[in-house]
Amino acid sequence: MTADDDTAAPAPRDPHDDARTDPDTPAPAAAAEDDAPADPDAATPVPGDEPAPGEEPVVGEEPVDGAPQGAAEAVPEDNAPADEYDAPAGAAARPSTGPTPAEPAAAPAASAARASGWRRLGEALRPRLTRSQLLAGVLCAALGFALVVQVQQSASDQLSSARQDDLVRLLDEVTQRADRLDEEVARLEATRDDLASGTGQAQAALELARERAASEGILSGRLPAEGPGVEISIADPGRGLTASQLFNVLEELRNAGAEAVELNGLRLVTSSWFVDRDGVIVVDDQELSPPYEWVAIGDPATISPALEIPGGAFATVRNRGASVTLVSHDRVEVTAVREPREPRFARPVESAD
């Protein structure tokens, strides 16, 4: 075989045969210049770039400006395979071994477009400080600072800014208060000393005796009394009541805690007695006539239910044809008094001391 035969262009092959070839097999040599396609945009191999025997073909580098040259210019924008567009007759079709040189350029462009979109969105959402907002912030800060300074000055200079008359008045009030406190201290100290001494003990005993005398005077009927209680009015137009019914009312009052009781101006005590005499009710040797007016000092919330117990004092009075009215008061007065009589038989027991 001659050298001319080695450089002769290979016979045209079916593109389908090229598609069935092994992708790892090197591509066949390019066609001769006389068989080059008439289309200037068609891919033409460069004679100086033919691979040596046994070397794999080198794919051309991408131009700096990103625009494809040579064979890459014939690739459509939709990245269609090279064997789908028309190839000139007699040109050897190169098998598709992967993405064309235009694909790496398209991916960075899409990524850059997305990054640019996010950047524009971030810039649109980023708060922008205007001159009016800056001025308003400065004014608010200055106003707050002025308020703080004013409050501090008012708190510290309240007395320094007062008039002389006001200062004198304040000084007098403080002095008088100090004097009153000193007097209170002196009084308490004197009380403490009196209690610690024999005189104080005697005075305390005297005060206790007075309190006991007051309590005994109320219970014995010797002293008038006042306090919360009730007023009871019993009307008996038919004169059906007897001394027994009125005595039951007195007993119910005592059982309910009444401490002082008055009936028709007569002070009732522990020694009081009731009796019927010639159709008239006699109490402590005094005749009574209706209506019977009672005044009792005690807890109204306890006295009223005690008298209204079924079968109790009021029920017995009503069964006799009489009517009863009870009114509670926060304050009532028992003005009737009586001197206790001297006991005839009882004598106090002398203490062992």
TrEMBL record:
Coiled coil: 164-198
Name of this chain's protein: DUF881 domain-containing protein
Keyword Magnesium annotated: no
Chain spans, region Disordered: 1-111
Pfam families the record matches: DUF881
Family the UniProt entry places it in: Belongs to the UPF0749 family.
Keyword Transmembrane helix in record: no
UniProt superkingdom: Bacteria
Low complexity biased stretches: 39-57, 87-111
GO cellular component: plasma membrane
